[in-house]
Every structure is written in structure tokens, then in C-alpha cells.
Amino acid sequence: MQVTSDLQVQNTALEQQAIDVVIMAAGKGTRMKSRRPKVLHPLAGRPLLRHVLDTAQALGARRAVVITGHGAIEVEAACSMNTRATAPFSISFVRQEPQLGTGHAVQQAVPVLADDGVVLVLSGDVPLTQPSTLQQLLAASAGQQLALLTLQMENPSGYGRIVRSTDGSVQAIVEHKDAASAQLAITEIYSGIMAVSAKQLKRWLARLDNQNAQGEYYLTDIVKFAVAEGVPVVAHKIDDPVQVAGVNSPVQLAQLERAYQLQQAQRLMEEGVRLADPARIDVRGVLQCAQDVSIDVNCVFEGQVSLGEGVSIGANCVIASAVIEAGAVIHPFTHIDGEELGVTVGAGSLIGPFARLRPGARLGAEVHIGNFVEVKNSTLAKGAKANHLAYLGDATVGERVNFGAGSITANYDGANKHRTIIEADVHVGSNCVLVAPITLGAGGTVGGGSTLTKDTPVGALSVARGTQVSIANWSRPQKSPKA
Ligand code: UD1
Ligand code: MG
Fold first, then answer.
1. CA-to-CA distance for 394 and 405, rounded, in angstroms?
2. To test the ligand 1 pocket, which listed residue (102, 186, 201, 256) has its Cβ within 8 A of the most ligand atoms?
3. Rounded CA separation 385/371 (Å)
4. How do beta strands 146-152 and 188-197 pair?
5. Is the CB of 101 under 6 A from ligand 1?
6. Whether 176 is catalytic
7. How high is the mean pLDDT in each 10-residue block of the chain (483 residues)?
8. 122 in ligand 1 pocket by Cβ < 6 Å?
9. pTM reported for the whole predicted model
């Protein structure tokens, strides 16, 4: 009975205890050999630190405190902007200058950490830890024990080793550079992630010194203090190295990018998406697919992209911020980028190859956009076609309009943009220039090579080009004989 009620008390305590995440991100990242701060290098289109902040938010953390140092101004600007955070999750920054070690880093957060929380220590350069793993770590800590995330590693070189006593209990973490040769043989390593009550953490941080091989304040020394005080130290061991892998170099960044992309590909295939090659798709955002979607090789998806039932994406397409409705076919080498406005491709439309859809392109059902056609901020109604070498910008195009090869809307007068309205069933011949603002009346025809500057009546044929002249029996000039 007593045990049950203790457990209940513990569980309730954990449920009620707020999670405050401390993210260490002050390090220099020398091996990236880049001017950009390491934690701002993108993985799947998002800065490394953004991944960690999103994980913290997914956990239901109360706040994240980011320890910045190298490139602090840039890091703080990048994370304050464009934050997905909504109350009650708050992000704050604390500077660590100079950087005297991980213990010193976390010490900087002490003034802003409340005593009632459980602190989860993460690193800004470790992007792929699963929220569920951290939940388990927090559960292991139960807000009262020091919980360490650990991993078995064949080659533990460089990592802090988990030193256990003969009964298996954790005694200490010994850093690689401080380890005796017997300790170097230990293959259980500390991942760099721990959960601990704020109160205890603060007490132990105050006692750290830098009497070690690197002359740094080691966060890992708090394990000794916990053991000395009789506070249980629990190791939560996982076997997926990707979840604790840090980025120190472009090679490691690329390895983690591939690991992440393979996870995305796996997830898509489990949902029924047919990928020609799971190793040749990159999702840098959120890709939602209905049933029977197929995606050929070398496609990149960015931002929010949704693919309706039966959509087929050809090889080498880049698609960003777009909704592609059921049955549409996107042929190879098509570039769709909706940016802020988005792009919609209607059901059963045929796009590409080599088409370009820009922000605000709204295509209705069964629209055809062919090779080397650019569409920007334009609405095309059902069945409209622009199949070859054309530009439609700031246009409203009616149903069944046929927009000829080489024709363009001249939407920009050098100062302002103007709209072109092409009503239903208009046939625009090849190589026409429609100088906006202009309206072409329904059912009209525009002769090839016309430059139109005035509205055209409903049903009319409009031609605006030089009159053809033919001179009979014309003899071409002959080469003059050599002198
Ligand atoms: C640390 C652990 C080690 C563990 C390893 C896992 C310590 C003393 N050692 O090693 O046991 O196996 O992580 O990767 O904690 N940082 C700061 N300020 C500093 C120092 C570091 O913000 O003064 C940041 C770094 O930018 C990085 C993180 O802390 O994001 C970890 O630092 P790093 O030097 O990579 O870890 P190690 O000391 O090698
Ligand atoms: Mg270090």
C-alpha cells in the first residue's frame, strides 16, 4: 500500500513539475570552418538550434534558456524571429563569455531558473533527439533523481565515460582526457543530456571547480556530488546514436541530414507513398500526402506541401509551400515555390516539364502549364492552357483560354504592376505581348505576333502587327566577284 501511494505521489509530482530546458549553444564550432555560428547551420531547412527548441516545445516545456556566446547576436536574432513558440512556452537567452566549460555554461542560467522546475540540459548542436526519449529521461528522474541519457559505443573516444560501481550504480562521469586507462575501456558514454531538479542543480553547480585536465568547469562533475549526498543517479540507456549525435563538422552535418531524410522517407512509405528511391528525396518542412501518391527521384519539398490523392511528381522537381490537388501530374524539372502567398495546382492539372510556378499562382482543375512557362500571382480557371514558352504575371485567365507559345503579359511599366484579364474561351496566338492593364473579351482571338495595348471586344479577332508585304520575283543580293 505504502509503495503504491509513494509512486502516486511521485507521478503527481512529475506531472505537476514544470520542465525548464537549458540549451548550451555558446561553443565556437571551429571544425565547421564557417563564419556562421554552428547552431544556425540548417538541417532539413531549419537551424540546428531550431530543432532543439521545437523538441523542447513538443515536450511541453515551460521555457527554454539558450546559452549563447560565439555569434550570440546572430543566434539570438535568428531564434527570436520566426519563432513557432506560443505561450506558455518562452525562449530567453543568457550570454556566456568567456566559455569556461559546460558547467560554467549552465551556471549562467541559474539566475533565470525557477527553483520549482526540473531542468533538462540539451545542446544546440544535437538536433535529432526524440521528444519521447526525453519524456522517458524525465520520468526516470521523477524530478528527484539525477537522470543521465547514456549510450553504449564501440568507439567511445572523446566522450565522458559512465563509471559504475560493482553493484552497477552510477558513481561518476569521467571525461576522456581525465580518464585512467581502465576507465578508457568503458564503452557506456554520457550523451550530454541530463534531467535534474533545479534546486539540486543549483546547489551542485555552485560547487564546481576547474581542477581537471582541460581546466574547464565540467557539468558532469555534479554526478559525484549527487552520489556523495546519496541522491540516486539513474542512467537511461538508449541504443540509437542518431538521437544524441552532435554536429561538429560539415561531414557530421551531412550524415545527420541523411539520417533525418531517411526517417522522413520511411515515414512516407509507411503511409503508402511510393518513392522511386528513399535515398533521393529531401523534405525540408512538412509533406502531407493522400493515397496513391508517387514521387520520382531527386525531389525536394520545402515548407508546407500537400499532395492530393493520386498525384504524381516527376524526377528533379523542387516544390515549396504548395497545395497540389488530386490527380495532378507534375512532370520532371518543375519548380514550384509559393513562398508566403502559396501556390495551388488544381485537380487533374498537367504541369511541366520545366515549368515554373511562383507565389500566388492559383490554377484550377485540368489546367495545362507546359515547358518554360512561368506563372506568378495569376489565377487560371478550369481547363486553361499555356503550353510553351510563356509568361503569365498578375493575370486573371478564364476557363478554356489557350495562351499561345511565346506570349507574355507585360505586367510591369517600370514603376507599377498592372493586371491582365483574359476572359473565358479567348485564344491568344503565338508571340503576343499583352500590355497591362488590359482586358480581352470572352471568346476573342488574338492574331499571332500582336502587341495589344487596348481592351478587345467579346468575340472579336484582334491583330496588332505590321502588315505583310510580298514583292514578287525578288532576287537576293549576289556575292560581288573578287577584285
Ligand atoms: C560533453 C560532456 C561529455 C559528453 C559529451 C557528449 C562535459 C564536461 N562533457 O563533452 O561527458 O560525453 O559532451 O557530446 O560536459 N558549450 C558551451 N559553453 C562551454 C562549453 C561548451 O555552451 O563553455 C556547449 C557547446 O557549444 C556544445 C555543448 O556545450 O553545444 C557541449 O560541449 P562540447 O565541448 O561539445 O562537449 P564536451 O566538453 O566535449
Ligand atoms: Mg568541450
1. 18
2. 102
3. 12
4. antiparallel
5. yes
6. no
7. 43 70 95 97 98 97 97 93 64 97 98 97 98 98 96 96 97 98 98 98 98 98 98 97 97 98 98 98 98 98 98 99 99 98 99 98 98 98 98 98 98 96 98 98 98 98 96 95 84
8. no
9. 0.92
